[in-house]
Amino acid sequence: MKSAGRMGIHYMQKLNAANVPKELVENGHNRVIEASLTLIRERAKLKGELIRALGGAVASTSLLGVPLGHNSSFLQGPAFAPPRIREAIWCGSTNSTTEEGKELNDPRVLTDVGDVPIQELRDSGVDGDRLMSIISESVKLVMEEDPLRPLVLGGDHSISYPVVRAVSEKLGGPIDILHLDAHPDIYHSFEGNKYSHASSFARIMEGGYARRLLQVGIRSITKEGREQGKRFGVEQYEMRTFSRDRQFLENLKLGEGAKGVYISVDIDCMDPAFAPGVSHIEPGGLSFRDVLNILHNLQADVVGADVVEFNPQRDTVDGMTAMVAAKLVRELTAKISK
Ligand SMILES: [Mn+2]
């Protein structure tokens, strides 16, 4: 399974530049980076102008795709998720109104600035550190354009680190994070990769980007995961005690005294019965309605969010998980936009 999953996207390997002069490669990837950031900057500006022309908004959700899968420890399919999620958001089988009545067709509620071209950047020889910085930079370009707030479509969970870093830096202080996941993703590093999708929250906590981190849906956690959780003061809510914690988790109030609240949703927080299209199938998870109850009842100023780890290569033929991911994006949009 592992090799098949990796082979499927082996064209995304890094540029083989062993015999090419260093300056030539450096120059080339600088131009590709500049072009990538320019496209996102101009699209964000355009959406900002459109929203202001329509009368403005206090906060407006803008989608930013980050099709990155190579920091996964098992399969890399999440790189293919953003277009599948977008397709499902606008699928004709449903309408454009969220459960609580927000109209997604209104650009003041939802816009899209496109994808960070991860494949093109890697192909031009950009390394891991630089790639993370480009993701951060892209998020900041979206936030630069008031009233846009980023809702990031992953990608594997490694992207939450550069995204949260950008949100916190841009707002000038730590934020509270609500993290829904089967896993705590808090290993110091995984298989030697400090940017692994299993380590993103270690990087976030080390960086001081989060004041509080609440992890909900946890049911695959090792000794190191618990120790790291303690070390960083993480509030870990495990599935085995969910029936006891439900009342509290479905009535959360976060972000008071912080710069805002960030929501990170790993699709595998849900039971595979609801969302089979994930790389790490982990039975015993939240229902889709559990997740919506937590989100709908949350009292918070949501400054950014991500939906990660949807793996289209493992979805049903009808794209059931794509619809699940899309509905989460729709409901998160309703939570952010005002
Ligand atoms: Mn997970």
Automatic annotation (TrEMBL):
<feature type="binding site">
    <location>
        <position position="183"/>
    </location>
    <ligand>
        <name>Mn(2+)</name>
    </ligand>
</feature>
<dbReference type="Pfam" id="PF00491">
    <property type="entry name" value="Arginase"/>
</dbReference>
<keyword id="KW-0378">Hydrolase</keyword>
<dbReference type="GO" id="GO:0008783">
    <property type="term" value="F:agmatinase activity"/>
</dbReference>
<keyword id="KW-0464">Manganese</keyword>
<comment type="pathway">
    <text>Nitrogen metabolism; urea cycle; L-ornithine and urea from L-arginine: step 1/1.</text>
</comment>
<dbReference type="InterPro" id="IPR020855">
    <property type="entry name" value="Ureohydrolase_Mn_BS"/>
</dbReference>
<dbReference type="GO" id="GO:0046872">
    <property type="term" value="F:metal ion binding"/>
</dbReference>
<dbReference type="InterPro" id="IPR023696">
    <property type="entry name" value="Ureohydrolase_dom_sf"/>
</dbReference>
<feature type="binding site">
    <location>
        <position position="268"/>
    </location>
    <ligand>
        <name>Mn(2+)</name>
    </ligand>
</feature>
<protein>
    <recommendedName>
        <fullName>arginase</fullName>
        <ecNumber>3.5.3.1</ecNumber>
    </recommendedName>
</protein>
<feature type="binding site">
    <location>
        <position position="181"/>
    </location>
    <ligand>
        <name>Mn(2+)</name>
    </ligand>
</feature>
<keyword id="KW-0479">Metal-binding</keyword>
<feature type="binding site">
    <location>
        <position position="185"/>
    </location>
    <ligand>
        <name>Mn(2+)</name>
    </ligand>
</feature>
<keyword id="KW-0056">Arginine metabolism</keyword>
<dbReference type="GO" id="GO:0033389">
    <property type="term" value="P:putrescine biosynthetic process from arginine, via agmatine"/>
</dbReference>
<dbReference type="GO" id="GO:0004053">
    <property type="term" value="F:arginase activity"/>
</dbReference>
<feature type="binding site">
    <location>
        <position position="266"/>
    </location>
    <ligand>
        <name>Mn(2+)</name>
    </ligand>
</feature>
<feature type="binding site">
    <location>
        <position position="157"/>
    </location>
    <ligand>
        <name>Mn(2+)</name>
    </ligand>
</feature>
<comment type="similarity">
    <text>Belongs to the arginase family. Agmatinase subfamily.</text>
</comment>
<dbReference type="InterPro" id="IPR006035">
    <property type="entry name" value="Ureohydrolase"/>
</dbReference>
